[in-house]
Design goal:
alpha/beta, pyruvate-formate lyase- activating enzyme, 8-stranded mixed sheet, 9 helices, globular, binds iron/sulfur cluster
C-alpha cells in the first residue's frame, strides 16, 4: 500500500484506501482496478458505484510519519524534500469515500510538514467542496494535481484546478490520448492578474491566457498573482489494452512548456513507442500502429532474418513493451520538477 515508489516523479506512494469508480476515458484500462480484481479472485470488489472502499492498515498509515521523521537524512542526501504520491489505487476526492477517512488523511498531511504530498485527482471539481469542510483549505505541503487525457478534459478541468487555492498545481497528462493545447492556461508574462486589477499593464486585453477572475494573492504578499500551472507530466499508457501515444502529441506539450518555462517531465512511452525508442533487430512479431486520417491503424510486422525496426519520421509505433520503450523523447530524458 505504500512503498518507495517506482513512479518516476515521486519518492513514496501512499494509499490511505483502495477502490474507485471509472470516470472517463483515462480510466478505461485502470491498472488499480485490475489489481483489485487479481487480489479478490477475479472480481474488483472495491470498484464501481456502491462498492465498498477498503481502508488500508494502521501500520500502513504510520509509514508517512516515519518518512517525515527521516527528513534530515533525505534532505542531506538529495538536497530536497521527499515527495509522496497519494493515492495510486484510489482517488482522494472520490465521492464514495467516508468523509471521516479524508479528515484523517488531512490530519496526517498536516502532521507531516516535512513531506510534499502530491494529491492527483480525476475529480478536480470536488476539491473545493471537500476541503471547505475539512481542513478548510489545502495544507501548504500539498501539491494539487489534475489528470487530463485530451483537449476535452483540459477545457473542462484546468480552470477548476487553477481556481482552487493550492501552493503548487500540476497536470498529469497520462495516458495522453490526443493533442492538447495548453496555451489558454499558460501566462507567459508571469504577472497576469486575471483581470482582477482595475488597470493592468501586464497583458494585452485579448491575451489568450486570461480566462477568468481569481482571488489568489502572490506568495510574497505583493498583490494578486495569476494561479499557475507549476508542472506538467506526460506519459503513454502501459498494460493490457494500452493505447498508443503519438510522438507529436508529447513533443507539442513539451514545446509549449518550454516556451513559457513550465517544468516538463516525460514519464514514459508506455507499451507503444517509435522505432528509435524500441531499437534493435526484431526478435518476434511486433504489433504496429500507424496514425492515419485521424485514427490509429493497427498491423503486425514479422521479422525476416535480421530485419530491424525502421527509424524514420513516420508516426509508426511498435508495441515493444514499457520497459524496452523507456522514457527518452527525441533522444533524451525530460525530468524537470517545480521548486519545492
Ligand atoms: S480515477 Fe484512477 S483509480 Fe479511479 S478508476 Fe480512474 S484510473 Fe482507476
Amino acid at each position: 500500500m505504500s512503498e518507495n515508489s517506482k513512479i518516476e516523479w515521486t519518492d513514496h506512494t501512499f494509499n490511505p484506501w483502495e477502490g474507485c469508480q471509472k470516470v472517463g476515458p483515462g480510466c478505461d484500462n485502470c491498472y488499480a482496478e485490475t489489481r483489485n480484481a487479481r487480489y479478490a479472485g477475479g472480481t474488483a470488489i472495491n470498484w464501481g458505484p456502491g462498492a465498498p472502499r477498503r481502508r488500508t492498515s494502521e501500520a500502513n498509515w504510520r509509514k508517512p510519519r516515519a518518512w517525515n521523521a527521516a527528513h534530515a537524512e533525505f534532505f542531506a542526501a538529495h538536497g530536497r524534500r521527499q515527495r509522496v504520491f497519494c493515492a495510486s489505487l484510489a482517488d482522494v476526492f472520490d465521492n464514495a469515500i467516508d468523509p471521516a477517512w479524508r479528515e484523517e488523511l488531512f490530519k496526517l498531511i498536516n502532521e507531516t510538514p516535512n513531506l510534499d504530498w502530491l494529491l492527483l485527482t480525476k475529480r478536480i471539481g470536488n476539491v473545493p467542496m471537500m476541503v471547505s469542510v475539512i481542513p478548510g483549505h489545502l495544507p501548504d505541503n500539498v501539491w494539487l494535481g489534475a489528470t487530463i487525457v485530451n483537449q476535452e478534459e483540459a477545457d473542462r478541468d484546468i480552470e477548476k484546478l487553477l481556481m482552487t487555492p493550492a501552493r503548487r498545481r500540476f497536470l498529469s497528462i497520462e495516458p495522453l490520448l490526443g493533442p492538447v493545447d495548453l496555451l489558454a492556461w499558460f501566462d507567459p508574462t508571469g504577472n497576469c492578474c486575471m483581470q482582477e486589477m482595475q488597470s493592468c499593464e501586464n497583458c494585452p486585453a485579448d491575451a489568450p491566457w486570461i480566462h477568468g477572475p481569481t482571488t489568489e494573492y502572490a506568495e510574497d504578499g505583493s498583490g494578486y498573482s495569476s494561479p499557475e500551472i507549476d508542472w506538467v507530466i506526460v506519459g503513454g499508457e502501459s498494460g493490457p489494452g494500452a493505447r498508443p501515444m503519438h510522438p507529436d502529441w508529447a513533443r507539442d506539450i513539451r514545446d509549449q512548456c518550454e516556451a513559457v518555462g513550465v517544468p516538463f517531465l516525460f514519464k514514459q512511452w508506455g507499451e507503444w513507442a517509435p522505432g528509435e525508442s524500441c531499437g534493435g533487430p526484431l526478435t518476434r512479431t511486433e504489433r504496429t500502429a500507424d496514425w492515419w486520417d485521424g485514427k490509429w491503424m493497427f498491423g503486425e510486422l514479422t521479422p525476416k532474418g535480421s530485419e530491424s525496426i525502421h527509424y524514420d519520421d513516420e508516426p509508426v509505433l511498435y508495441r515493444c513493451g514499457k520497459k524496452k520503450a523507456g522514457r527518452h523523447l527525441d533522444g533524451r530524458t525530460h525530468d524537470d520538477f517545480p521548486k519545492a
